[in-house]
Fold each of these.
Amino acid sequence: MNLTWIALSALAALVAYFMVGGLFFAVPAMRTEFAKYPAVYRSGDASKSVMVPGMLGLLLAMGAAAALFARMHPAGAGIGAGFEFGVLLALFQLGAFVLHNHMMPNIGRRMSVLQGLAYSAEWIAVGVVISLVYRG
């Protein structure tokens, strides 16, 4: 495993995550759905006060994902392997985050479906970007 490539992959994955997320979360349907739950989700302005820990958490997650990819493909791998890895990440987050959060916070099915779509697309992009950047 090459730590420099893992770090570069993690940074590139973070950018991809925010780019894909920006597309999804800018959609009026997503904003409208989040607005239905002001007791659960912070507003855009309120979230700025906790943005640093959130960004660090995502960077930690990207680093872990890049390290997992590097262990699976020590010499690097192509876009197909990255897509498969991204799908695995997406399935993990669907179970550990989206479906679990559907059970715990009092949010509706539509919110969970929209989150599932957005987060899955983000994590698939993360897998692909890691595979494109990481070069053991």
Amino acid sequence: MSSIAASTLTVRVLLFGSYAEWLGFDTLDLSLESPATIDDALKRLRSLPGGDTLPERPLCALNLSQAGARTPLSTGDELALLPPLAGG
């Protein structure tokens, strides 16, 4: 009989603007059960104090490239959550 241990992965989360204000930090190392997606990271962030204010589908960048909620994560990835930007 074999036992399978749950493995984890760790990603660095970067928060900007109002997202950083709401959650109270601008960087966080987040551990998740593997396999994990951006959506899994967002669910974990929403469980933190202030995380319930995050929008349903925030703009995300994974390793400096825009990525969707179903994008898989790997240990060492950098996940950035970007609030809506305005300019003029």
Amino acid sequence: MRVGRGSIFGLLGPNGAGKSTTIKMLTGILFPTSGSVNILGFDPTKDRKKLAYQIGTVFGQRSQLLPNLPLTDSLEFFGVMYDMSSKQIEKRIAELTELFDLGSFIDQPVRKLSLGQRMRAEVAASLIHKPKIILLDEPTI
């Protein structure tokens, strides 16, 4: 299946249907037992690090944020992880803060955020490096 630029694609199905497993295979967290996976021209089983620079992920049941530190520290951490300069990180955090209305809680420890605030912060963190694709697992949380 090919999904074009600007497309939104959803996986719908009952619990246990394999939606999360599919996302984990697309990101290279799990390897398929048969067949192959290709996303943006990358094989996640062989090119996981290169692919990580092109995609963003949010797993609704598992936080990627640093719980005891302010949200801004998590955003800076991810910017550094994706080889962004300090200037790029600062600019991107400002953009995401405005886009997701993070200003009122950006300096609070992540563990003190409400679920809604944390999910906005999770999506912002997954977009810090301007990925081509964002994969959301259980986005309605």
Amino acid sequence: IPLGSRERAVLVQIGDEQILLGVTPQQINTLHKLETPLSVANSNGISSDFAGKLRKIMQQRGDK
């Protein structure tokens, strides 16, 4: 998901683990390791509710 003109949030799956990364031209940071993997199994590989799930995760993380 684009967050700015050159910043993105990227969901990466490695085996059974999913990691949310923040990507800028200068660096890549781990934002969150998902305990329960999100489903991304539609025709274009992007969950239609990914933005909503990302928003919910980020709000929960901010509450800690």
